[in-house]
Fold this sequence. Notes:
Elements: H1 3-14, H2 18-37, E1 42-44, E2 48-55, E3 58-61, E4 68-71, E5 74-81, H3 83-89
Antiparallel strand pairs: 1-2, 2-5, 3-4
Helix pairs in contact: 1-2
Amino acid sequence: MNKAELVEAISQKTNVSKKETDSILTAMLEEIMAAVASGSKVTFVGFGSFEPRERQARSGRNPKTGETMTIPATRVPVFSAGKSFKDKVAPSE
Length: 93
């Protein structure tokens, strides 16, 4: 599912125009990205959480030359699925 399909599905479920739905979804995603970029954790109970994590520097190899190189430390966004989401995807038997 892409963004246009998600907008269509939300629009049909909520009886809100596609244009309004798109602007709401875009604003929501921008706010999540801004919060995570500033170092905050964003949590939706049952769905999951978005948070920044520090990735330490490590050594790696250049695939072309095979030469050892250092991959610098960086901060990356991480999503962790909540229990309800996990259960929906892989129901327990």
